[in-house]
Amino acid sequence: MKIMLATFVALTATTAAHAERRCGWLSNPATAKWELYDAQGGWEIMFRGGDGHAAQGMDKIPDLTTGEYVRTFAIHGYACACLNVDIDTSTTEHIISRIYSVKQLPLAKCRDDPAVQYFLQNDN
Predict the structure, then answer these.
(1) Verdict on whether the full-model pTM lies above 0.90
(2) How far is C-alpha 55 from the chain's CA centre?
(3) Which sign, positive or negative, has the C-alpha torsion 68, 117, 27, 102?
(4) pLDDT tens for each residue of 33-51
(5) CA distance linking residue 110 with residue 27, whole number of Å
């Protein structure tokens, strides 16, 4: 039993140690579609059309409307946030495979960051 617990703890620590911190615009532009726009471009978090994809840990995304949030239409919109995530390295696509945590930030943090201002220049 102790060996199984030690193995579980070691595997969990290894997985979390590889998480990347990514900050930028967390966007929910349509039903079942989530994206993150950071300094390296757009990252797919969830997309249910076609082949579909949903990162593990989607439940880590809080109700963004309780903080600073830009509503684009209906319930959809975007916020500024930092996410601790795993990236799918098996593809050249920008895909987030797992979310460990999400921290919503003031909108000004992203608005003032030149590396992610490109997002605001698109039709969002």
Answers:
(1) no
(2) 9
(3) negative
(4) 999 999 999 999 999 876 7
(5) 12
